[in-house]
Amino acid sequence: MSEDMTLQPSQQTSPTCLSETDSALCIVVGNPNPHNNEIPRWKPGLYIPFLAITGAQAKYAEATFKQAVKQWNESKIGITFDFVEEENDAVFTLTYGGEHNNVFAKAFFPSNQDLNRILVYSVALRPEYIMWLEWVFLHELGHVLGLGHEFALKSEKGGVRFPDEEGADGETGNTPTAPRSIMEYYHRSESATQHPIPGVQPNLMDYPEGKLPFKDIEETKRFYQLESGTTYENRPIVDYNPRKAQVYQPTAIRKATEDAEEGIDRQREKAERDKAWLQKHGKERRKPKDVE
């Protein structure tokens, strides 16, 4: 069973991202299940099909989620998310979860589970929070890729720093010159007057126009370029290749195939028309161009 990551406000109604147990990449990686000593990721090169079934309540959330997916896909980190229209084809769904106290969203780590869910809750769509929704989804998709909280190195006691950078902060994994990670946020003890949403976003100016930090892109690429079985702190990297991803035909390939088949059908139909015209009029007469 996959573990999940939950994004929710703290007791002071300031959002935080809480894991159910230990989380796991200057990024932090590792399995959130303390009984499973591994570093999970998807098999490199996979297309991960997903479906958005948010319903009328959260169409904006669906559109924003697709923008976050686009950012991760354009980063070419080794995994591609691909939108599908049928749940039977999906490895995971984005689903509207309705009311859930002050929880924003809930995600999961890579696994072979047949169907996972990212849940987005109503609080994420409130006017005071909705401007951060794309950041929330970038963060949650980080979990889906196998990334844990930057501060998990200390406070959640389950993270493995990757790569092990000299001079990196022991709690956040950030180096003095590195930008903040999308997987980092301030602790609940931060003053509500310091940040609009203390506990979730340290400073949105660290993410120009809501873009993924270069640090996260490059280090996630490096993570997915490693050989399966590579160990960090005695934890092996384990690749997951769920059944639906194995049989899935990516949208671009499927469309190219459909276009090619459609072209073949058009050529076949034209040949049949030409044959019928020749049978009717004989070979001695010149066939007009594009006889219908």
Tell me the layout of helices and strands.
Elements: E1 4-9, E2 15-19, E3 28-29, E4 39-42, E5 47-53, H1 59-74, E6 80-83, E7 92-98, E8 105-108, E9 116-121, H2 133-144, E10 160-161, H3 214-225, E11 231-232, E12 235-240, H4 243-247, H5 251-281
Helix pairs in contact: 1-2
What does this structure look like?
The chain has 292 residues and is α/β, with parallel strands linked by helices. It folds into two domains: 4-247, Collagenase (Catalytic Domain) (3-Layer(aba) Sandwich), CATH 3.40.390.10; 249-292, no CATH class. The chain has five helices and twelve strands. It has helices at residues 59-74, 133-144, 214-225, 243-247, 251-281, and strands spanning 4-9, 15-19, 28-29, 39-42, 47-53, 80-83, 92-98, 105-108, 116-121, 160-161, 231-232, 235-240. The strands form three sheets. Strands 2-1-8-9-7-5-6 form a seven-stranded mixed β-sheet, covered by helices on one side.
CATH architecture of the largest domain: 3-Layer(aba) Sandwich
CA(first)-CA(last) distance: 59 Å
Radius of gyration: 24 Å
Which fold name is given in CATH as the topology of the largest domain? Collagenase (Catalytic Domain)
Question: What count of helical segments does DSSP give?
Answer: 5
- Which CATH C-level class of the largest domain is it? Alpha Beta
Mean pLDDT: 72
What structural category characterises the helix and strand content?
A: alpha/beta
Q: What would CATH call the homologous superfamily of the largest domain? A: Collagenase (Catalytic Domain)
Largest beta sheet: strand ordering: 2-1-8-9-7-5-6
Strand segment tally: 12
Uncertain residue ranges: 9-26, 151-157, 166-178, 186-205
Pfam family, one: Peptidase_M10
Region (Disordered): 249-292
Protein name: Peptidase M10 metallopeptidase domain-containing protein
GO molecular function, one term: metalloendopeptidase activity
